[in-house]
C-alpha cells in the first residue's frame, strides 16, 4: 500500500512538473500544428493567385485546405493575416538573396551586385513579384501594413548604403534609389507581361546599362 501511494504521488508530481512524455507530446502537437498551418497557407496561396486577394474568402481557403471555415481561425484570424504570412516569407527570401550578394570591391560593384540581386530575385520568381506588389488581381495601390511594406525597403537598403558612398546627401540618395527602383520594376513588368519583346531587347543588359550610366555619373560628381 505504502509503495502504491508513493508511486501515485510520484506520477502526480511528474504530471504537474512536466516530464519527458509531456515534452514529446508538446513537440508532436507543435509539429502537427505547423503541418496544418502549412496546409492552410498552401491552400491560400493557390486561391490568392487564382482569385486575387479581394476575390478570396476564408471559406474558399478552408475548402481547398480540407477544413471547415471555423477550423481556420485556430491558425489565422483573417485572410489578410494569411496573406501577410505568405508575403513575409517571400520578403525574407528576397532580403536573404540581397544580403548574400557580393559585398566586396568598388562602390560601383556593390551597387551593381545589390541592385542586380533584387532584380534577379523577382525576375526568377514572378509569383513573388505578384505577392510583393499586390498584383494578384490587377494593378492598384494597396498593402496590408506599413510594417510589411517596410520589409521591401530592407532589400533596398544595401543599395542605398552603396549610393551614399558617392557623397550623396540623404535626399539625393532617396532620389537616385527611387529612380533605380522604378527602372527595375519597369523592366520586371515588361518581362512578365511579355511587352519587352516589342523592343527586341533583353532585360538584364538594359539594367546593366542603366547601372553603368548611374555609377559613371555619380563618380564624376
Helix content: over 70%
Name the overall outline. elongated
User: Ends: how far apart?
Assistant: 93 Å
Q: With helices defined by DSSP (H or I, 4 residues minimum), what is the helix count?
A: 10
* Major sheet size, sense and barrel closure: none
Q: Report strand %.
A: under 5%
Radius of gyration: 25 Å
Q: Mean pLDDT across all residues, rounded? A: 85
Question: What would the CATH topology of the largest domain be?
Answer: Tetracycline Repressor, domain 2
Question: How many separate domains?
Answer: 2
CATH class of the largest domain: Mainly Alpha
CATH architecture call of the largest domain: Orthogonal Bundle
Strand/helix succession: HHHHHHHHHH
Q: How many E-type strands?
A: 0
Low-confidence stretches: 1-16
Structural class: mainly alpha
* CATH superfamily annotation of the largest domain: Tetracycline Repressor, domain 2
Amino acid at each position: 500500500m505504502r509503495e502504491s501511494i508513493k508511486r501515485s504521488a510520484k506520477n502526480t508530481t511528474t504530471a504537474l512538473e512536466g516530464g519527458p512524455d509531456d515534452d514529446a507530446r508538446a513537440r508532436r502537437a507543435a509539429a502537427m500544428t505547423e503541418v496544418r498551418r502549412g496546409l492552410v497557407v498552401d491552400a491560400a496561396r493557390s486561391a490568392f493567385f487564382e482569385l486575387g486577394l479581394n476575390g478570396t474568402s476564408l471559406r474558399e481557403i478552408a475548402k481547398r485546405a480540407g477544413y471547415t471555415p471555423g477550423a481556420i481561425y485556430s491558425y489565422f484570424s483573417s485572410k489578410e493575416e494569411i496573406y501577410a504570412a505568405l508575403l513575409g516569407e517571400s520578403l525574407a527570401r528576397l532580403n536573404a538573396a540581397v544580403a548574400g550578394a557580393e559585398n566586396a570591391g568598388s562602390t560601383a560593384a556593390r551597387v551593381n551586385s545589390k541592385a542586380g540581386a533584387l532584380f534577379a530575385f523577382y525576375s526568377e520568381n514572378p509569383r513573388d513579384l505578384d505577392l510583393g506588389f499586390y498584383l494578384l488581381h490587377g494593378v492598384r495601390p494597396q498593402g496590408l501594413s506599413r510594417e510589411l511594406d517596410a520589409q521591401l525597403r530592407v532589400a533596398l537598403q544595401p543599395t542605398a548604403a552603396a549610393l551614399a558612398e558617392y557623397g550623396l546627401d540623404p535626399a539625393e540618395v532617396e532620389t537616385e534609389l527611387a529612380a533605380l527602383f522604378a527602372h527595375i520594376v519597369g523592366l520586371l513588368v515588361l518581362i512578365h507581361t511579355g511587352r519587352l519583346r516589342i523592343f527586341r531587347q533583353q532585360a538584364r543588359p538594359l539594367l546593366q546599362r542603366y547601372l553603368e550610366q548611374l555609377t559613371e555619373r555619380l563618380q564624376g560628381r
